[in-house]
Design goal:
about 200 residues, Rossmann fold, binds S-adenosylmethionine
């Protein structure tokens, strides 16, 4: 399919999408917010007072949702892209996989955190298999980082694509956490390989 035809299809899809319309009415920067809301409705990991790292946070709807609906959360949001200011959120621009940025995250909390959420995704290349591998690698790196920064009863929620590395990532997450769930929220598009990994309690 030609590039301008793909983008026209994308624009039409966005116009028809109820989640896009709802996000505009409710003042959220992305329809992705409803994925977080639906995952949380099922697994109930968001609570007042938690310390939270939001990986791949731009444009910022997950952080907006947490800061709007929960009191006294300490939230750090990081993304390769600049995130427009959100009240009560500490924002970092940079690659989360870089040691220097991981050090900044640890220094900000100066303690273990309760929750790491990751909606990180690589730029779409048009090749769904390649995209799932690259996004899977980001999920692995997020797991690796999380196991050193969260509390014993902490939780990890991450985007993960169905694909060749899916089973390997789920297996690795089971080595780190006691409880693992895989969930595709209704707001995740049917034609996407996207799923979410929800992990509880460090081993
Ligand atoms: C689907 S968007 C996240 C949407 C966000 N949850 C929201 O609600 O607005 C995925 C983000 O992951 C970011 N990302 C990808 N690789 C990253 C990395 N290595 N470090 C930090 N952010 C990354 C991208 O820049 C992109 O903004």
């Amino acid at each position: 399919m030609k590039k301008n035809k793909i983008s026209k299809n994308w624009i039409n899809k966005q116009r028809r999408d109820i989640y896009v319309r709802k996000s505009k009415i409710e003042g959220y920067r992305s329809r992705a917010v409803y994925k977080l809301e639906e995952i949380n409705n099922k697994f109930k990991f968001l609570k007042n007072g938690l310390s939270v790292v939001d990986l791949g946070a731009a444009p910022g709807s997950w952080s907006q949702f947490m800061s709007k609906n929960y009191k006294n959360m300490k939230i750090l949001a990081i993304d390769l892209k600049k995130i427009d200011k959100i009240d009560n959120i500490f924002q970092l621009k940079g690659d989360f996989t870089e040691k220097d940025n991981q050090k900044k995250i640890k220094e900000y909390f100066n303690d273990k955190v309760d929750l790491v959420v990751s909606d990180m995704a690589a730029n779409t290349s048009g090749n769904k298999n390649l995209d799932s591998i690259v996004t899977g690698e980001l999920c692995l790196q997020a797991l690796e980082f999380t196991k050193n920064i969260i509390k014993k009863d902490g939780q990890f929620v991450s985007k993960l694509f169905m694909g060749t590395t899916f089973n390997e990532i789920v297996k690795y997450s089971k080595e780190i956490f006691e409880e693992i769930n895989i969930f595709k929220p209704p707001a995740s598009r049917k034609d996407s390989k996207e799923n979410f990994l929800v992990c509880k309690k460090l081993r």
